[in-house]
Amino acid sequence: MIQELGIQNTNDIEVLVPGIQIGNRSQGGSKSEDGHIVIRGLANDRAVNFFQDVSGAVYIDGVYSDKSYGLDQGAMFAIERVEVMRGPQGTTGGKAAIGGAVSFVTKKPTAEWDLKASAEFTDQTTQQVNLAFGGPIGESDFSYRLGLSRLTGDGLIKNVGSGPDGDKPDQLIYSPQLRFTNDRWDINARYSKLEDK
What we know:
With about 200 residues, this protein is mostly beta strands. It contains 2 helices and 12 strands, in the order H-E-E-E-E-E-H-E-E-E-E-E-E-E.
């Protein structure tokens, strides 16, 4: 469903869901602050006060995060669905869900072989390649899935000083998963890492 709607990153969700903003904002002209969430106009400024609580909670497979690190560039390729809950969600979302909560649910390994790949090249000299594959491990109750996403580009802003060029992406995201299922148990272990160079 995510791919059918043409959702490539969290910014695309804003087009389909009114009253929400998910994405990057500049932080001191250098690195951006990833994954800030604004729901129904409620936001915070972590660039000014790092210890300030967020107003929109983020959950990735049910695990709380105060930001959607790694989900803004390409990792939506590994997402099965996105659930947006507007308004205070203190009962289910905790104290950081005053404006609402966003839940990202990743695709899980299955007993069927699966392979998906995509590539995108833009006129802004940005290249993005996504690959996800998985399936059963022999005749056992185990299955696996591996997702990879690589984003590179020349950037939009040339820095004439000594620092790096502005908005020059160089990211690698990978997330291996191992799942055990039988009549009584359904256990899924997932590791995800974003390398931003």
